[in-house]
């Protein structure tokens, strides 16, 4: 039977104490009662929210911004050959393949998941059944009983060290399997390129794994020590047992390394029968095994698993107690604090205790005093709300991100789009890092030097333009590490926008096919509308950096490029009136002709799809495309990214006045917004990224996240309050299916937090916010040297309209806006709520 676990009692006590706490505990404390009050906020965090459905999150007991994330990975024999699911973990699945040490929060991809540890007894070393009735997932602690082997597994973590504790049945051999290959989502291309393994001592092992998927040469090193020496050691290479205690390449160089390498290593350790649990401490590093050893040796917890849980929980309490809340329901508070928790999972610290880190060039660097290297920047998602939120509630960290991104340019030569463990993934659209940098710099210019502004401008300018002479230094022909990223990290979209005023849809086609492609690197000049619209915004961000740097020529250049969104809009009331709209953004060829995307035989006179399709009408036959149908959803590689024109027609946050004019003025802008939120929500649901429909507004993916707030730029601002309220109520729930789309490393949660607070930044890079509707009666959160307060008078679920609102006692500006500088210690954003739609602002 299981030995009793001290931590279970400790957690039960913590939960009991938290149940009688009010909502106003905050700050660190020096006595036991204050500490218990501080920890009470943890009762509002449920790491299992979003682990089913679409959230793709995992229940890792990670520390705030911790670089190691131990978590269970599922084995799903009915899905992708047993290689798991996009999140690696779904609560409804009960088969466990192991507890791996690195994860991405909610991105729906198979990267990381390095080094899976699985305790077992007898010969049952394959997938095992999790007893879901025993599963516990709390801040800083995860546990589950394994049915066939009767092992209890518990997880916790420090910043760089994962702790796993296994309690075995009496009399059974205590065994652990370590799967160094451990690949999930193999069908997406996730493979182990090289594995190294070494038995270091009778209680210690080490190794490394280089894998690819998003990251082409993603390498992690580990070092693990066990609380007891193992008496049995078996290693298998490619399924064959070996007597060797060291296998593979310890110094694998990545692309161009032609030495024979190993890609599948499994080790079995036997600790024999015994009464004590086996605890393993696992440290990781991006620099080498020596770095992992140093990270583990710096940990002073010994094998005291329970103390690690306590320390982990205290760290989270310190973060979450930045906010205190009055009002709202238990569910509201749980959703809010869990969302806040998720925004602190990443970006996370990715350097060793001695300051060494792997740069974007694959080389080991030493951090200068005051510098921190971070990793997992999901910037196409997070520039919209997650990074702006950090500029409000964690100024110092936001400034560090800007310096870190500029350093990534210095070590790699280009700003990353979606950085993963110091690897260029080239994932998603454009160059969103310039938004993150610009937003921090315009809000806190005093935190940066003239050299910083000039470096930021140089990094932005290089990253926004395709230049083979730059990339030659880091593609595989010259560099063994990052792989050929010219296709994705740097593309010619910006060049074409500057030449033509927009990105032509046929830029990727060869001249003989009617296009204007110059060479093979134009093959991925696709998603022309999405790239064109987003790049126009990013170019506006570059202009703001240029202004700070005092470079008027670059300011004028990028401001001109920021207008490249306009040519995409087809203003045609007679054609699009059947959809209630004045027009849509649509793809355009270099000669100015519009691109069609659908056959008219599949659409009726009202613009709705015909079902069943008429005979001889093939919606996939491009030769029959003779109309532009706004509902046509696309994933990637065509003209739109993960959506259709209903969503993408609104992406010009930097120039709302210009977008209004393009759509036909104030009336056309409002008409199109209304058409979006009342459009047919079932016309084309073929794309999995399009979820959370209100009409054709999509809450479950990022391009639309700012759109409900655009009603504040119309004569009917109360519709912002209605649609934000509807989205929060319908699409965010404190349940395992409670997220309507991928969490995307904090973005979905950050949107919810901003909605609950009652304001949002439509245009990151412009330090201005506009309002929605607050969820709570009062919220206080930490800012420099004090707290900022948000109050809502007459607040209730029925009183969702804003009757009046002031910032620090003064009315807001046009479009219900206020400046970032108004969020200061002692300040207050005060709402008066009503159940009546207010008059025009």
From TrEMBL:
Residues 44-285 form the Glycosyl hydrolase family 92 N-terminal domain. One of its GO terms (biological process) is carbohydrate metabolic process. It comes from the Bacteria. Residues 1-19 form the signal peptide. GO terms for cellular component: cytosol. It holds the Pfam family Glyco_hydro_92N. Keywords: Hydrolase, Signal. PROSITE patterns: PROKAR_LIPOPROTEIN. InterPro entries: 6-hairpin_glycosidase_sf, GH-type_carb-bd, GH92_a_mannosidase_put, GH92_N, Glyco_hydro_92, PNGase. Residues 292-834 form the Glycosyl hydrolase family domain. GO terms for molecular function: carbohydrate binding; peptide-N4-(N-acetyl-beta-glucosaminyl)asparagine amidase activity. This is Glycoside hydrolase family 92 protein.
């Amino acid at each position: 039977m299981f030995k009793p676990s001290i931590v279970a009692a400790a957690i039960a006590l913590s939960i009991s104490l938290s149940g009688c706490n009010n909502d106003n505990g905050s700050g660190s404390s020096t006595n036991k009662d204050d500490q218990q009050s501080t920890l009470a906020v943890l009762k509002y965090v449920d790491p299992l929210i979003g682990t089913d459905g679409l959230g793709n999150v995992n229940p890792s007991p990670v520390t705030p911004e911790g670089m190691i994330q131990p978590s269970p990975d599922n084995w799903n024999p009915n899905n992708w050959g047993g290689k798991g699911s996009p999140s690696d973990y779904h609560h409804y699945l009960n088969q466990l393949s192991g507890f791996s040490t690195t994860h991405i929060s909610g991105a729906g991809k198979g990267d990381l998941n390095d080094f899976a540890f699985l305790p077992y007894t007898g010969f049952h070393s394959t997938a095992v059944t999790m007893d879901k009735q025993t599963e516990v997932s709390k801040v800083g602690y995860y546990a589950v009983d394994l049915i066939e082997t009767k092992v209890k597994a518990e997880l916790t973590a420090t910043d760089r060290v994962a702790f796993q504790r296994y309690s075995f049945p009496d009399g059974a051999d205590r065994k652990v399997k370590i799967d160094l290959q451990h690949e999930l989502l193999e069908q997406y291309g996730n493979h182990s390129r090289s594995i190294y393994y070494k038995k270091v001592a009778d209680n210690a092992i080490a190794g490394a794994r280089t894998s690819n998927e998003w990251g082409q040469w993603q390498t992690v090193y580990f070092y693990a020590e066990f609380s007891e020496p193992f008496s049995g050691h078996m290693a298998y290479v490619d399924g064959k047992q070996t007597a060797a205690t060291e296998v593979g390449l310890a110094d694998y160089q990545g692309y161009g390394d032609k030495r024979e390498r190993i890609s599948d290593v499994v080790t079995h350790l036997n600790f024999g029968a015994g009464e004590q649990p086996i605890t393993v401490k696992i440290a990781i590093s991006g620099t080498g095994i020596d770095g992992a050893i140093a990270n583990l040796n710096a940990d002073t917890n010994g094998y005291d698993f329970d103390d690690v849980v306590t320390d982990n929980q205290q760290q989270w309490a310190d973060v979450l107690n930045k906010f205190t809340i009055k009002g709202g329901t238990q569910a509201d508070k749980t959703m809010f604090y869990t969302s806040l928790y998720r925004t602190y999972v990443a970006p996370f610290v990715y350097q060793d205790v001695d300051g060494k880190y792997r740069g974007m060039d694959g080389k080991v660097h030493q951090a200068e005093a005051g510098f921190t290297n971070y990793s997992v920047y999901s910037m196409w998602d997070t520039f919209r709300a997650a990074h702006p939120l950090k500029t409000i509630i964690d100024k110092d960290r936001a400034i560090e991100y800007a310096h870190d991104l500029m350093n990534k340019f210095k070590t790699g030569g280009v700003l990353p789009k979606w950085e993963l463990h110091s690897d260029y993934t080239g994932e998603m659209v454009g160059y969103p890092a310039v938004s993150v940098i610009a937003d921090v710099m315009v809000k806190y210019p005093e935190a940066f030097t003239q050299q910083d502004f000039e470096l930021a401008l140089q990094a932005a300018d290089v990253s926004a333009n395709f230049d083979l002479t730059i990339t030659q230094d880091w593609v595989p022909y010259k560099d063994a590490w990052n792989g050929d990223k010219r296709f994705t990290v740097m593309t010619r979209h910006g060049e074409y926008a500057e030449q033509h005023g927009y990105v032509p849809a046929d830029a990727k086609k060869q001249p003989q096919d009617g296009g204007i492609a110059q060479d093979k690197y134009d093959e991925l000049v696709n998603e022309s509308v999405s790239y064109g619209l987003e790049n126009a915004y990013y170019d506006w961000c570059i202009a703001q950096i240029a202004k700070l740097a005092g470079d008027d020529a670059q300011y004028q250049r990028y401001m001109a490029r920021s207008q490249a969104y306009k040519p995409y809009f087809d203003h045609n009331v007679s054609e699009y009136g059947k959809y209630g709209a004045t027009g849509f953004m649509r793809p355009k060829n270099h000669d100015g002709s519009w691109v069609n995307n659908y056959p008219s035989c599949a659409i009726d006179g009202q613009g709705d799809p015909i079902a069943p399709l008429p005979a001889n009408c093939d919606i996939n036959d491009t030769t029959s495309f003779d109309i532009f149908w706004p509902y046509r959803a696309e994933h990637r590689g065509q003209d739109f990214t993960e959506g259709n024109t209903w969503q993408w027609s609104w992406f010009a946050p930097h120039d709302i006045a210009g977008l209004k004019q393009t759509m036909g003025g104030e009336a056309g802008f409002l008409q199109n917004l209304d058409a979006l939120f009342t459009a047919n929500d079932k016309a084309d649901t073929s794309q999995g990224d399009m979820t959370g429909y209100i009409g054709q507004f999509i809450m479950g993916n990022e391009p639309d996240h700012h759109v409900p707030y655009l009603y504040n730029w119309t004569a009917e601002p109360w519709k912002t309050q209605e649609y934000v309220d509807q989205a929060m109520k319908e699409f965010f729930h404190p349940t395992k299916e409670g997220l309507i789309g991928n969490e995307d490393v904090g973005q979905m949660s950050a949107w919810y937090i901003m909605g609950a607070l009652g304001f949002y930044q439509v245009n990151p890079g412009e330090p201005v916010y506009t309002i929605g509707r607050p969820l709570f009666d009062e919220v206080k959160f930490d800012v420099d040297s004090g707290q900022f307060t948000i109050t809502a008078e007459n607040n209730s679920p029925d009183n969702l309209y804003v009757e009046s609102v002031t910032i620090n006692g003064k009315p807001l500006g046009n479009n219900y806006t206020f400046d970032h500088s108004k969020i200061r210690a002692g300040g207050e954003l005060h709402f008066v709520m009503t159940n009546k739609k207010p008059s025009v602002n």
